[in-house]
C-alpha cells in the first residue's frame, strides 16, 4: 500500500513534489543554521548545570525542575502553535520565537536566584514552542518531495547546536562565570537575521500559492488505524526522550561521580554523545526516504537496548564508546517518526510537528524531573541502571501499520 500524496494548502502540509523536484537548499541551510543557534542556546542551560548547582546550592531534583520548566512550556504550547498556524500561517513568527529565547538567555546570565533561573528557562521554552513547528513546516515546504532528507537537514542543525553547547560552556562559561552567557546573545541576533530571510521566503512562497486550488488531503488509513499508529509513535517518543533525559541532564554528574572527572572533562564527554546524536540524525531521514520509515524506527529504538543495558557496568572507555553508539542509533529515530506521522495525517503538518516536538520536549522535561528525584533518593548510578530498560519499549513498533513509505 502506498501513501497518498500529501497536499500543501494554506492549512500547512507540503505538496508531494515530483521526484525530480530539487529541494530549496538555501532555505534548508538557513533553517538548519537557525536550529543550530536555537538549540545551542538551549544546551547552554544543560551544560551550566554543574555551575548552577554550585552557585545556588541546588539538589538534583531542582536541576531536573529547570529542565522540566523549559521543556514543559515548549511541550504545552507547541501543538497549539502548530494548530493555529495550520489555519493561519504566520511567516514572521520565527524571529519572534528566537527573540524569546534571547530574552531567556540574558535572564539566565544575570539571574540572582533559582526562581529567575526558572523564569529564564520558561522564556527559552516559549521560544522553542514557536520555532520548532513552524521551522518543521518550512523544511517540508522546501523539501522538493524529499521529506525525510529535509527533516534530517533541519534536525542535524539542532543536534549540532546541542552538541557544541557543552564545549562552549567549558571554554567560556566555566572560566568566566555565569554572566559570560550574555555573550551568546550575539548568536541569537544572527539567528534572528537568518530567520527574517526565511520568513520573507515563506511569505512570498505562501502568497504565490495561496490562490491555487489544492487537492484534498486524504489519510492513508481509516481514522481508528491512524490514531492507533499515532499512539504507538508517542510511546516510542516517550521511551526515546525519557532515556535521553537521563543522558543529557545527568551524564556529567554520572561521570564525575563514578570516574572522578573534572567538570570540563565531563562536558567534553557529553559533547561526544551529543555530536554522535547529530551525526545519527543525518542518517535517519534519507534512509527512511529510501527503505521506508518503519524499519528505521524499529532499529533506532530497539537497537540501542543492548548498549543501554551494558552502559551502567562499563569502565570509562566503554562508557564513552557505548554512549557514542547510543547517540548514533537512537537519534536516527525522530526524523523518521515525524515524517511517518505527517504522512499519517496529511494537511496537518503544523499540528503534527507541534504535537511530536511538544511531546518530545515534555517527556524530556518530565524525565529530567523524575530522574532527578530518583538520583536524590538513591544515586546517579541507580538511575542509569533503571533507565537502561526503556529502549526495550521499541518492540511496540511492530504494531505500526505496514506500507508507510514516501509519497
From TrEMBL:
According to the UniProt entry, its GO molecular function terms are:
transmembrane transporter activity
Which keywords fit this entry according to its UniProt record?
Membrane, Transmembrane, Transmembrane helix
> Among its keywords, does the record have Cell membrane?
no
Every copy of the Major facilitator superfamily (MFS) profile domain together lies at: 27-406
UniProt signal peptide: none
User: Known CDD domains for this protein?
Assistant: MFS_FsR
One Pfam match, given by its short name, reads MFS_1
Species the sequence originates in: Xylophilus rhododendri
Indicate the transmembrane segments per the record: 63-85, 105-131, 182-204, 225-254, 266-284, 296-314, 320-340, 352-375, 381-400
Q: Which domain of life is it from?
A: Bacteria
Cellular component GO terms, alphabetical: plasma membrane
Q: Which PROSITE patterns match?
A: MFS
Its protein name is: MFS transporter
Amino acid at each position: 500500500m502506498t501513501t497518498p500524496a500529501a497536499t500543501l494548502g494554506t492549512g500547512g502540509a507540503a505538496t508531494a513534489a515530483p521526484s525530480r523536484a530539487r529541494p530549496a537548499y538555501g532555505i534548508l541551510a538557513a533553517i538548519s543554521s537557525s536550529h543550530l543557534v536555537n538549540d545551542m542556546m538551549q544546551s547552554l542551560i544543560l551544560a551550566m548545570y554543574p555551575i548552577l548547582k554550585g552557585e545556588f546550592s541546588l539538589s538534583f531534583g531542582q536541576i531536573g525542575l529547570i529542565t522540566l520548566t523549559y521543556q514543559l512550556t515548549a511541550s504545552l504550547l507547541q501543538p497549539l502553535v502548530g494548530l493555529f498556524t495550520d489555519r493561519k500561517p504566520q511567516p514572521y513568527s520565527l524571529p519572534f520565537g528566537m527573540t524569546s529565547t534571547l530574552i531567556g538567555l540574558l535572564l539566565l546570565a544575570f539571574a540572582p536566584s533559582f526562581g529567575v533561573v526558572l523564569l529564564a528557562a520558561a522564556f527559552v521554552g516559549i521560544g522553542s514552542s514557536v520555532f520548532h513547528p513552524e521551522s518543521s513546516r518550512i523544511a517540508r515546504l522546501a523539501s522538493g518531495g524529499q521529506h525525510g532528507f529535509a527533516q534530517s537537514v533541519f534536525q542535524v542543525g539542532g543536534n549540532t547546536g546541542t552538541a557544541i553547547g557543552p564545549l562552549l560552556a567549558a571554554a567560556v562559561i566555566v572560566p568566566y562565570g555565569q554572566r559570560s552567557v550574555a555573550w551568546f546573545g550575539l548568536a541569537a541576533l544572527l539567528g534572528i537575521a537568518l530567520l527574517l530571510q526565511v520568513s520573507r521566503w515563506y511569505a512570498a512562497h505562501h502568497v504565490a500559492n495561496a490562490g491555487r486550488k489544492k487537492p484534498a488531503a486524504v489519510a492513508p488509513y481509516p481514522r481508528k488505524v491512524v490514531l492507533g499508529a499515532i499512539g504507538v509513535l508517542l510511546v516510542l517518543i516517550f521511551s526515546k526522550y525519557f532515556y535521553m533525559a537521563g543522558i543529557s541532564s545527568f551524564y556529567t554528574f554520572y561521570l564525575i561521580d563514578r570516574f572522578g572527572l573534572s567538570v570540563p572533562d565531563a562536558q567534553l564527554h557529553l559533547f561526544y554523545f551529543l555530536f554522535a546524536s547529530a551525526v545519527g540524525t543525518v542518517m535517519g531521514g534519507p534512509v527512511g526516504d529510501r527503505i521506508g520509515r518503519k524499519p528505521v524506527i524499529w532499529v533506532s529504538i530497539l537497537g540501542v537496548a543492548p548498549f543501554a543495558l551494558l552502559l551502567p557496568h562499563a569502565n570509562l572507555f566503554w562508557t564513552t564508546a557505548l554512549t557514542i553508539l547510543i547517540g548514533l542509533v537512537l537519534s536516527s529515530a525522530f526524523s523518521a517518526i515525524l515524517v511517518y506521522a505527517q504522512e499519517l495525517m496529511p494537511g496537518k503538518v503544523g499540528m503534527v510537528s507541534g504535537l511530536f516536538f511538544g511531546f518530545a520536549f515534555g517527556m524530556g522535561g518530565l524525565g529530567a524531573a523524575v530522574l532527578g528525584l530518583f538520583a536524590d533518593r538513591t544515586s546517579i548510578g541507580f538511575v542509569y541502571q533503571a533507565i537502561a530498560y526503556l529502549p526495550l519499549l521499541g518492540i511496540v513498533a511492530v504494531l505500526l501499520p505496514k506500507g508507510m513509505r514516501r509519497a
